[in-house]
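Quick one:
INPUT:
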């Protein structure tokens, strides 16, 4: 099962694992605009696959 999260939830999980991480919401948005991230629209929310984000950033 995919772990879908909002942008803020993804950043929170990254910061929990590495408080000094330089990953920002703008980095994740850049991956989104480049078409590298799958996303799901749920009302006004945009949900991303957490594992895909971490994989693209080289964190897993």
């Amino acid at each position: 099962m995919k772990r879908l999260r909002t942008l803020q939830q993804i950043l929170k999980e990254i910061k929990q694992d590495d408080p000094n991480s330089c990953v920002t919401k703008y980095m994740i948005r850049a991956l989104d605009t480049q078409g590298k991230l799958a996303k799901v629209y749920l009302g006004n929310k945009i949900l991303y696959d957490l594992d895909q984000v971490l994989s693209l950033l080289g964190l897993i």
